[in-house]
Automatic annotation (TrEMBL):
It comes from the Bacteria. Belongs to the OsmC/Ohr family. Residues 1-47 are annotated as: Disordered. NCBIfam families: organ_hyd_perox. This is Ohr family peroxiredoxin. Residues 7-16 have a biased composition (Polar residues).
Length: 146
């Protein structure tokens, strides 16, 4: 990291953990955080897995658009991130897994897969999760109404 240059940083503050509130210090964004009903919680807010899915899908799609521009591929792109919370028997805790579904308007599976693999190598979220959690990337048909 000695040669890297800081491009951006942000800070988020949480009080109350999974049943609390998270916000940015400038108050431009805040969200009520709640344990999902599926896990015995009230389910009356967002949860960390949903927020991770939002961030990962946006970051990955930006990386995909960058790769499309480099390869001169046109069309709209769409990334769906499904974040799963699993039990972790190694420490009786939890672990994440992510499924990314990638679609590019007007492109075949081979082209979409090639660009998705390049985006996966480029995306900061993918770099951060590499070797730490299971991430699968698959191609799907682009759906304009999604």
């Amino acid at each position: 990291m000695a040669d890297s240059k800081l491009m951006y940083q942000t800070t988020a503050i949480n009080t109350g953990g999974r049943n609390g509130e998270s916000h940015l210090p400038d108050n431009s964004f805040s969200v009520r955080v709640s344990t999902p009903k599926d896990m015995g919680g009230p389910g009356q807010g967002s949860n960390p897995e949903q927020l991770f899915a939002l961030g990962y899908s946006a970051c990955f799609n930006s990386a995909l658009e960058h790769m499309m521009k480099e390869e001169k591929v046109t069309g709209k792109s769409q990334v769906t991130a499904t974040v799963e919370l699993h039990s972790d028997p190694t420490d009786n805790g939890f672990k994440l897994a992510v499924k990314l579904e990638v679609g590019i308007e007007g492109q075949d599976d081979a082209t979409t897969q090639e660009l998705a693999e390049k985006a996966h190598a480029f995306c900061p979220y993918s770099k951060a999760t590499s070797g730490n959690i299971d991430v699968t990337v698959t191609t799907v048909a682009y759906e304009a109404d999604k």
